[in-house]
Amino acid sequence: MREIKPILQMNKICKTFPGVRALFNVDLTLYPGEIHALMGENGAGKSTLIKVLTGIESIDSGEVYLNGEKIKAKSTKEAQSLGISTVYQEVNLCPNLSVAENIFIGREIIKNGVIDWKEINKKAKITLEKINIKIDVTRTLDSYSVAVQQMVAIARAIDISAKVLILDGPTSSLDNDEVEELFNTMNKLKSQGMAIVFVTHFMDQVYRVSDRITVLRNGELEGRYPVSDLPKVQLVGKMIGKEFDELADIHGNKQVELKKDEINVFLEAIGISNKGVIEKFDFNVDKGEVVGLAGLLGSGRTEIVRLLYGVDRNDTGNINIKGRTVNMKNPITAIKNGLSFCSENRKTEGIVDSLTVRENIILALQAKKGIMNTISRKQQEEIADKYIKLLNIKTSGSEQLIKNLSGGNQQKVLLARWLITEPELLILDEPTRGIDVGAKAEIQKLIVELAAKGMSVIFISSELEEMVRCCDRVNVLRDREIIGQLIGIDINEHNIMKTIAGGQE
Predict the structure, then answer these.
(1) 485-504 pLDDT, tens digit each
(2) 294 with 475: CB under 8 angstroms?
(3) All domains of the chain, ordered by start, with CATH?
């Protein structure tokens, strides 16, 4: 039997950015007619590996071979000419142009010096039919669903180059039926000999459609595995750096019982969902309780709290605050009902880097009071100084620009911003990401202290140790669904990982 040769080989790829080693000696081997999942937590190096392959970033060292020939793409256009195309989560096409125009943009068919639209429409239709998509190609792209737009992007990619197709987070905005459509297309392309790199955070989808898995962790190759040889729980362990066996004897020390008294419930979500973003779920948090949301990146943790806080709108269900149904139409409504939210995107959704520490601290309180009830400069200074001292924020003073603080101290400023609003429920999304050990310990201690004083806390962290240390209850998510709950002494790293993996040992 003739041995199948790899279509793509990446050997010992290294890439460093200023102060950051993004990739170190990473290998990737891809065969024709396979769907190959690329897995890893945030910061593992997946995006960087794709960027160096497709010419967006240069390679510091290492070699790339396509059909046995050494290549070095210096741009996406050059990569496409070699036969490598990428379709990203956010469709990078022109929504106001027709489907046909999008497929052939930059490659228009010219006849007698003018664009031959009839021929373009004809070929666009044929191109889409190759992947079982039959639509009116003369309609604008934005008249179709996100799923169809994804298919158009794929059709364009394979029409340009038909050797290697990279799908980076293609299912993130799709509902279950649309995911099925995409998988049918992927399997059809696979049967035609196409090699597909599938980048996703959805484990169940990986096991549905993939043949092999390459796992990256902290910029290095953790390993390559046939899907059939790697149980889900082992995949979780390899992604986060904890082997299953290492966790078997870990036990929590909590003695918390789930409260039965409905009077204690501060927030209750019943049948909440957002189509294509998060499946229908029930959720509650009691007064003085720390409830964790655990799961891999992309599991739906952030999506849940964005719905609870009114950043995104729910399609179904109700949110009750202290037994009263609230139309959580925006964050202002949430703030007025006693909620506060520290986003994981500290740089883009948290700090305003052009403002001082003082100005950043009082933003939420001013929003709560309303624009007509301005806080005097003296009051601002008193509030800022109080919380700088309370949270041990290392700064030269309240007038220092926040951008000049360390990540940990920026995080403390954000905590101060919300604490001065005197919230009844504090939502913390990855509050310790990217900060030093000392600052992490201080924030964890603060969470426990706030709960002891009666504040409710929803806590999201990718670090399982933090979840075990801080939480009274943990809701576990996988693939946009809450799939289990751990309480009290059952909260340990082993059980969290086991639940994420669907109970598989």
Answers:
(1) 999 889 988 898 889 887 65
(2) yes
(3) 8-230 (3.40.50.300), 244-338+423-505 (3.40.50.300), 345-422 (no CATH)
